[in-house]
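**User:**
Everyone, produce one record:

**Assistant:**
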Amino acid sequence: MDFFTNENIVFYLLAYLIGSIPFGLILAKTFAGVDIKNDGSRSIGATNVLRVVKKTNPTLAKKLGIATVILDALKGTILLLVGMFIFNLSAETLWTMAVLSVLGHCYSIYLGLDGGKGVATGLGVYIVLIPISTLIGAIVWFIFAKLLKISSLSSLLALIAVIISSIFINNGLDIGSNAPMYIIAFIIVYKHIPNIIRLLKGEEKKVV
């Protein structure tokens, strides 16, 4: 029983379980009546919500896409803030929670360990733990999203900007190691392998 009453273990479980909530799937089914797991890229993220719902309701698609980004980010952010400011959890615990939140989104227990690409949830945890670098990444994403209109490439370039800037700004983070930040980045890149292959082939679709 001590296992389930240990404060850190409880937060680790919550991080994964909350991270696993497929908000994009829920919003698209509830408000648009479509199953994004059976259409488009079959991802549960905002880009696929936008792409699939746009076929029948462009105005609603934008709203649901924005809502998905916000909720997917918040499921990483809110628990970290609670752990940081209310429970005074250590930096090591917070970074472990961050990794588990992204794992939950990408490998959701509610979807048979399937899930999204991890970008919004990664943003949600990074903005709490490495805020300056994350803001730099957000600016990079905004610029390239406007210029290229390719969601995956813009996200990957933003991720690179976060990692590089953090190496200079927060080298060692607060725990003497960059490992958790790299693990989150690796998960996101790994989930984007199909997108990377399409990019190399010139087949990746634009978001218009």
Q: What stands out?
A: The chain has a mean pLDDT of 91. DSSP finds eleven helices and no strands in the chain. Residues 2-201 form one domain. The CA atoms of residues 41 and 48 lie 6 Å apart.
